[in-house]
Every structure is written in structure tokens, then in C-alpha cells.
Amino acid sequence: MDSLGTMRRTHHCNELGIGHVGEKVILMGWVLRRRDHGGVIFIDLRDREGITQVVFNPEINPAVHEKAHRLRSEWVIAVSGVVDPRPGDMANPKLATGEIEVLIDQLFILNTSETPPFPLDEDKEVSDGLRLQYRYLDLRKPEMTANLIARHRAVQSIRGYLNARGFLDIETPMLTKSTPEGARDYLVPSRVNPGRFFALPQSPQLFKQLLMVAGLDRYYQIVKCFRDEDLRADRQPEFTQIDMELSFVDEEQVIEIVEGMIDALFRETIGRDVQPPFKRISYDEAMSRYGTDRPDTRFAMELVDLTEIAAGCEFKVFRSAVDGGGTVRALNAKGCGRFTRKELDDLTDYALQFGAKGLAWVKIKEGGEWQSPIAKFFSAEERQRIAAALDAQVDDLLFFGADKNATVFQVLGELRIELVRRLDLLDATVFRFVWVTDFPLLAYDDKEKRFQALHHPFTAPRDEDIEKLATDPGAVYSRAYDLVLNGTEIGGGSIRIHQRDVQMKVLQALSISDDEAREKFGFLLRALEFGAPPHGGIAFGLDRLMMLITGGDSIRNVIAFPKTQKATCPLTDAPDKVARRQLTELHIRPDWQE
Amino acid sequence: MDSLGTMRRTHHCNELGIGHVGEKVILMGWVLRRRDHGGVIFIDLRDREGITQVVFNPEINPAVHEKAHRLRSEWVIAVSGVVDPRPGDMANPKLATGEIEVLIDQLFILNTSETPPFPLDEDKEVSDGLRLQYRYLDLRKPEMTANLIARHRAVQSIRGYLNARGFLDIETPMLTKSTPEGARDYLVPSRVNPGRFFALPQSPQLFKQLLMVAGLDRYYQIVKCFRDEDLRADRQPEFTQIDMELSFVDEEQVIEIVEGMIDALFRETIGRDVQPPFKRISYDEAMSRYGTDRPDTRFAMELVDLTEIAAGCEFKVFRSAVDGGGTVRALNAKGCGRFTRKELDDLTDYALQFGAKGLAWVKIKEGGEWQSPIAKFFSAEERQRIAAALDAQVDDLLFFGADKNATVFQVLGELRIELVRRLDLLDATVFRFVWVTDFPLLAYDDKEKRFQALHHPFTAPRDEDIEKLATDPGAVYSRAYDLVLNGTEIGGGSIRIHQRDVQMKVLQALSISDDEAREKFGFLLRALEFGAPPHGGIAFGLDRLMMLITGGDSIRNVIAFPKTQKATCPLTDAPDKVARRQLTELHIRPDWQE
């Protein structure tokens, strides 16, 4: 193999055009494709930036041409030559460099390559396991390289925006204490302190609040966080947060800053104008119209409240839902009146997963006639009122939910998304943002028989609701705000509690004893005694955001070295066994089956 | 307490000057000091940026003046008022805002504060433990805030520089496999994979090499790394690296990029021109002149080789060192001829720590006379030759080392630094950079009876030395380069091995079996089979670099939330006990004394 020596590239592989004709250039990269034609060898040379066609003609240098015969896919070469226009009919308009080729007079073979286990220039389906095992090859695919470049641009945009607005990039610890009230922690045994463990942070929440107490005013960090939870397509054991916190602000100021950041981000990453200010919707309205606090507002198909009509109808299922304090709601799947029985059965099964006891449906036929197993329970007038409420037309398909509020919202909310997915109405190139605000502070946990924080225990209640914390905790609204994009929560934040007595009242409403409070986050309570300023912030999930920006369907495609759904890395074989000596040093013993 | 409501600051506390006189402003911050004078209350209001004097005069608003009587140190307030020039003799030229004060007509008390456990506006000695326990107060000190702001500016400068040069900011995993041949790993038990452990990365070394194999060309990351080692003033369990890697480059190109980065960093962080290109020195020359591969070149006091003179002298200690294949070297502590016996004894004790068997010294008296226990062993001519070699003048003090090379280098190298420290010649505002190059690839480990990598096993040997790997491994030089600033290694890197067969030869020279190689880093060896480009890089320790830039003496002062020397956090009490249930989930059992 040849040595690089002191040779330097003059251009990358996406740079040369007609303006460079006649120039002597040096390119380096990988052999993507080789074609031999009329005794001449054509190589598509690839680097991170693109592709340039290089030509080995025996008339230019027979020895070099001879050497080029050895080249195979993914070999690494350096070539020097002169830029030449391609004959008019040979130009490739799909390639940025398609008007030229380089006539090579020197070739250095810097490395060879085995044949890759999957082709890099075809859109062939390859198993996730193989892609992750040979991640260094998978990342050579232009679309994967493009994802990492988009992510690079995104963090650059975010940092530039926040730096210009007085935010300080400050690092918080990775080896820390577990965040109370969160998901399961990853633990790190301490060698020096037997029986004690660090936790990897689920978020820098308490540290960023302490930075505000420290008077640092505006903080941000793009930072790894960790949750030891079961994985899904949009979850990884370690994930990256865009985390920020501001002092002396209210909700409006946080929202203003964030909208500017998101606007700049989309413009600078994919050249899209997302046109802030974004719409806002209260939690209650989001639930009632979309059945979820993460509404996908790219399409309508909103939920309609039929409780009043249902209260007087003959259909027992509807009546008993209303009588039991529940609700009857419906949505109109426009133009889906020709769904087959099989499709309706599938959708019913889908709905059952979310707690539905069944799924009532109505097909609207010519003349407004109802085709439905439940048609007979309704008078003509009731049918008319329901049709009017849902704006039902011929060929529409109506679905009904009748149960407790929470169940109806979840069933119809999920059904709405599933319908739109089946109808292929989800356009990944449309970006619909909506702020969800006015959340309840607490939600009653039926299993644990106590209130839980809907966000986290440091979220401020509305000033006017503080007194209700002791008397009617479920009626307290918070100062939280979530940013939802196309039905995915991409960011969540709040104005925080900065007064110790308010924090204590919230902890009491959460049934956390004084002892427990002191043990778990006594240091925050103590900090609130020394002049904590009013403050608030927000955190975004960068991986999910990048998935949406790049139009992908898995966060694994926007992470250089992700884990599988079983939290393993097929590339390095992590997690791995360790020597018994290492465990002894950490004062722990095995408790597993070998 | 008052609510912030929708009030917004108009200025920060370091912003107002004569140009703002007459303007109505709103400021928010902390009460630093309060003075009552002639019925008027003066408050120094502090925020992150600085201090502004605000004035409560009963004639402006008696109710507000009355309320201001309650204010105490570190209370958080919002005030509105009109900017007024201070009377000429009351101006404070030490303060950016010293020419004005703000006459307050509205006061909102946003939070109260207990009296801090240590004063924030005095240069009082406070224990490290207390400072870390109340870190949110310690960080309010202007010099601590300034350190974090300098660190913010530094990472901003580095990112800006590298972004402009085609580097991609790419995240590598935190939950990974242990780096072979390194320090002790922090381990993270896997819940899903019983008996298996992740390791927190000691550096992203292998991942950045894989990114080069993936064709990403130029990578950087400012990233947390972890080492479970015993701590010192300049070591933390988690530390931050500026990590980078480049494809298709040689040493010169890496050095060129780095010198530009360091130049921009010092200019943009503290306004200093460090004037690259930096000097270079080979490892061998650094050892011979300074006794160390991390030479502090802010001063001379270089080592002088006296082996040739000593070879013929009568002094047995010198003679036997030379006869045993060792060396005799000396340094001249200029002007130290009046050191007391006590000082000489102290220095001898100091030298003994580093393996010296004694410390020979000579005081040069009037007429060149030697005052020394060893004077009698040397002829007049020898004394003259030694004095000439060391440029010895009246009142100079000479120290000698005679032993194996390594011992002499270490003893005299350490003695040199200690002397300069005692003479208070170390100027933290002078920055002397030097590249150390031409390292040996391997060093023989007498204990383990095998060669160890001087840097790491992925460092490329010089092309011309590859054949010696099998025959004379100790004579192989590497393509590594370290950047040293004022005697501290701030960065280290190398051109890496990109050819599988060369990597195997190096592993063999390190006595690593094929099996062990496959198990520990088989994935790297495999990657080298698929077209790895020539590549190299470097990594800098950001914490140490910031310590030097800010002129401090502990990395703890440039980290927001550092750990103690016992790897604990007095603020949060991490590491902490965990519930037995958590251990059970992780398949481990306690092995410690409760």
C-alpha cells in the first residue's frame, strides 16, 4: 500500500465544476463504483461531500492505468489529475460535479477493503442488527452522512442562537445523585465509598435550578441524559437534551426565546420557515378536541362531544357512560364509508388495546341513512343531531367512544392517529407546532392512591391556585408548557417554584414526608433559603427533534452509535462481562446465573 | 413576597452609564451591600454582569423607602427608577457603572435570604468542603462567575473555529465498552443483560477512529470522559475533553489546525496573543534538557550532561553511575548560593522522593571557590570544566544527579520545578507552549516484563520503524505529538494506525495475544479491513486548560459542580445509598460492611 506522505487534498469530491477545467487537482476518497469502458477505467470517487468521476486512460499514464485495474469497491485512494469537461452527452445533471471528470496521472492506494456485507449505493433493506454491527459502513451511506451533518448544523444553530442571547453553556455532572420521582436510574458503584452509588442524570433539572440560584441568569447545555427504561423506536438508554433555564422570566419570555430558536433551527438546518408565533392550546382543550395533550394538528378529524345528545338516547352503552359521570364522543373519518368489515374489525381490535370495551361505528349512506349495528337505538332526530354535530356526509364513517373521560380520550385520540396513518395522510414535510399550556399540576394515581406531579415536583403552580394545594390539589393548574410538533412532544418546561414554602406545599400535596423531602432533595430546599430568583426553563429531546427534521421514522438514524431495542451495541458488544476483580473493587457480588 | 408578574428587566447591572441619565429603568438582582446614610438607603445591586448602586430616598417615595429598610444581604429584588449622575466626588472609578446611581420609585421583594455561611464580597479563606456544599453561593462570587463565563467563551471559540474548518460535532456513546490498556473504568450494571456491564468512556478514541473509517473526515466533540483513579488537584472522576480527529492528514496538518485553534482561543477568551507557530522539541531533547517530556519553558535552568567529565573523576558515586551505564547531570540554580543548610536539607528530602539516593550540591564562592561536601573529590581542572559547562558564577548553587538515566531525569526535572517554585519565578500570566514530538512508541515495563504503549496501542509507528516492531520494539519511534503549556500537558495526539497488519504488529509487540486482541477491540480490527483512511487527531483536557487560562491553581474553580478529592459531592451527597430493590434489579449483591 502507498503512504500518504505529505500529500494534501486540493478539493473535496463535491466541489469541482466547469470553472475548474484545466486545473491540476488532488482528490482523496473511497471507490464507490468502477466501470471499464473501451479500455478506460472510470471510478466514482466518494467522500463525505459527494462524488467525482475520475478517469484512468492508458494514453495518459499506462502504469497508473495498470495499477487502477486493482481497484475495488471501498478501497481508499489519492489521485492527482487535470479537470476536464465531460463530452456534452456524457454530463450527469444529477451530480453536482456531473459536468466534469478528472483525468488521472497519479494514483496512490492508501488502503484496500473487503467486500462490504451490504451494498452502500443501493436502497436495499438491511437488518438493523447488521447495520449496527457494521455501523462504520452504514454511516458511509449518503443519507446517513446527511443525517449527521444535519444534526451538526442543528446544534450549531441552537448554540449560536443562545450564545447571542446571553446564555452560558455550563456543564453539569454526569456522576450524580438520582433525580427523585423520575424513571429508573442507571447506577454507578463507587469504589472509594463502599455501598454508595452515583446515578447518571435523567436530566440536569436540579443543577440548572441551582445555577439560577447561583445568579448565572441564563444557562443552556446540549447534554446526555439517561433512563433505564424499556426501549421503543423513539427511546434510547442515553439521549440528548437541549436544556435551558432563565432567571427573572415568565412563560411569555421563555416561549418567545424558544420560538426564535426553533425558527432559526429549521431555517439553518433544512431551509424551512416554520412561521412563529406558534398556536397555543390549553391542556383541557387539547384533550377535548384531540383526545391527547400531544395533538397532531396537521389534520382535523377532531373529537366531538355528544354527551348531551347521548344523555337522552335509548342506547344503554351511551346512557350508562353518561350516568356514570363519563362522556360520549365521536369523530368523523371523512370518506371512509367504504371500509370493509375486516378493516372495521382491525380498528376495533386496535381500540381495545387502549381500554375500549368495543367500538361503535356508523357508515353514512345515500340520503343520510345509517348503516350501523347501533342505528336502531337512535331516533331519526337523534341521528340527525349527531350527523349535524359531526358534519357527516355520504361515505363518511363515524366512530364513537362512551366511557370514563380518560378512556374515551385515549381511545379516540389513538384511533384518530391510526386512521390518518392508514389513510396515509401524514406528511412528514409539513411541520405543525402547537404549545400546550394550562396543565393540571397534579394527577391522581389510582394505583398509588396519591397525587403525582404531571411534569415534576419543581413546576410552579399558578399563583392564584397556591391556596388550593391544601384543599383541592386536583384543581391546581401549573405554569408548565409543552411544545408539540406533528403529534410528538419535542420540548417541555415550566416556570419553577422559587419559594421554599411553596415548594413544601407542593411536596405535601404529593404526600412526600418532610424526612423524605430532606433526604431526596434537601439541597434544593436549602438553596431556596438563600435568595433564589424567579426562574423557568425548558428541555428539548434532540434525537426526536432531529428525527422529525430529517423526516425519518427512527431516532437511530440520527445517532452515530445507537443501541438496539435490547440496549446493546452490536458493534462493540457492550454491555460486556467484566473481571471478577473489578466487581470486588466495587464492593459488589454477582447475583446472576452464569 | 412580591410576584414578578410580567415585569421585564430593561438593563443588567453592569450596563448603565452617563449616557443613560434621565432614563427610566428596571433592574433585578441580589442585594450585595446596604448602607444607610443621612436617612437614605444605598444598595449595591448585583447580577451576573456587575453592580449598580440603587438609592432609596424617602423624598422620592416614602413607602418604598420604608420597605427598603427590610432589605438584607442576598435578598432578590426588582426595582424601577431613574438613572441619575452621582455627585462628582461620589463617583466610583472602580465600577463600570460608577458614574451613576438609580433613584428608585418602585421596589419588589422577589425573595428573601438567610445570612450566607460565608461572605461573598470578601477574599476570606473558606474551606473547600463548605464552598462545595453551598456551591450555589460560592458561584455568586464575581471571580467564580468570571471563570464559568471564560469557560463558556472558550468552548464557543473552539466550536466556532472547528465548525468553520469542516469539522462535524458528533456525539459518541456514554454507555460503552471499556477502553483497553487504560485506567480503571467506571462500570454501569445492565438490568436487561444480567452479568453484563457498560463502561463510561475514558475517551472516545475508538469511536472517533470508527467515524474516520465511516468517511466523516473531520470530527470533534467537547465531551465528558471518566476515570476511576485516585484524585489530585488537577484530576476529577469526570473531566471534559476537546476531542478531534481528521482524515487524510499528517502531523503537520494536525499541528497547523491546533495552533490556529489555540491562538483563537486565547485571543477570544482573555485577549492574549500566544504567537504560533509554537516551538517544537523532540522527546529525547526534552528529557535531556528538562528531565521531563512536559517541560516548563518559562525559564531556563536546564540540565547539563557531565557524564564525560564524571567518567574520569575520583568521586565514586559519579564514577559508578557512569560505569553502570547511567549518567551524571547537573543544573545551576542561579543566585541561590546563599541557601541555608535547612533549605538544602529540604531540597534533598524532596529529591529523595523521586528516587535519588542523595543530592550533591556545590555553592560557588568568591574566586570560583567550591563550598561543597564533594569538592574534595574533584581536581581544580575538573571543577573548572564543570563550572564552565554550567556557566557557574559567584553565588550560584549547583545540584548534581548521578544514577540511571530515568532517575537522574526525574530527580533533576522535579528539582528544577521545585527550585523555581521556591524562587517564585513562575508567572501564571506568561504562556509558553511547546510541542513535544518523536516519542518512543513503547516503553518497557519492568514490573510487567513487557512493553507498554507510551500513548495508546493505536498510535502509528514511524513508517521507517515498522520493521523494527518485531526485532527491536524499544527503538521504534511513534507519530505522536503532545502540546505542553507551562509544564502541563494540555493535549496529546498522534497519527493513528490505519492498516490492519500494522495494528497487529503493534499488538504483538505489546504481547497482546490474538484472542485478547479480538475480544477487546476486535471491532476496530474488523473496521480496519474495510477501507480505513489515513487519519490522526488530538485531545485536550478542557478543565486543565481553563485552569491555566484563568490563572488558577485548581481545576475545581473552573467546574460548576466538581467533586472532592474523595470523589464525593458535598452539595447533593452523591454518591449515595440506594434501595436494595435497585441492586436486585441490576443482578448484583452487596459486598460491603454496613
Mean pLDDT of chain A equals 95
**Lateral arrangement of strands in the main beta sheet of chain A:** 6-9-10-22-21-20-17-11
- Protein chain pair with the most extensive contact, residues per chain: A-B, 128 and 127 residues
**Which structural category do the helix and sheet elements of chain A fall into?**
alpha+beta
Which residues of chain A form runs of ≥5 with pLDDT under 50? none
CATH H-tier superfamily of the largest domain in chain A: Bira Bifunctional Protein, Domain 2
CATH fold title of the largest domain in chain A = BirA Bifunctional Protein, domain 2
Radius of gyration of chain A (Å)? 30 Å
The profile of the biggest β sheet of chain A is: 8 strands, mixed
Domain module tally of chain A: 4
Number of helices of chain A: 17
- CATH level 1 class label of the largest domain in chain A: Alpha Beta
Helicity of chain A, as a percent range = 25-40%
The oligomerization state is homodimer
- The termini of chain A sit apart by 46 Å
Describe this structure in words.
2 copies of one chain form a homodimer. With 594 residues, chain A is an alpha+beta fold. The first copy, chain A, has 4 domains: 18-111, Nucleic acid-binding proteins (OB fold (Dihydrolipoamide Acetyltransferase, E2P), Beta Barrel); 127-276 and 533-593, Bira Bifunctional Protein, Domain 2 (BirA Bifunctional Protein, domain 2, 2-Layer Sandwich); 299-425, Gyrase A, domain 2 (2-Layer Sandwich), CATH 3.30.1360.30; 440-477 and 499-532, no CATH class. In chain A, 29% of the residues lie in helices and 24% in strands. Chain A is built from 17 helices and 23 strands. The first copy, chain A, has helices at residues 62-68, 128-133, 135-138, 142-163, 205-213, 251-270, 283-290, 307-311, 316-323, 341-353, 380-389, 405-422, 468-471, 500-509, 514-527, 542-549, 580-585, and strands at 24-37, 40-46, 51-56, 76-85, 100-111, 168-169, 187-189, 197-199, 218-226, 238-247, 279-282, 304-305, 327-333, 360-364, 370-371, 397-403, 433-437, 442-445, 450-453, 480-485, 488-495, 535-541, 588-590. In chain A, strands 6-9-10-22-21-20-17-11 form an 8-stranded mixed sheet, with helices on both faces. A 5-stranded mixed beta barrel of chain A has the order 1-2-3-5-4. In chain A, α4 packs antiparallel against α6 (251-270) and α10 (341-353) crosses α12 (405-422). The longest helix of chain A has 22 residues, at 142-163. Chain A is globular and about 90 Å long. The mean pLDDT of chain A is 95. The interface between A and B is large, with 128 and 127 residues. Chains A, B: Residues 156-562 form the Aminoacyl-transfer RNA synthetases class-II family profile domain. Chains A, B: Its EC number is 6.1.1.23.
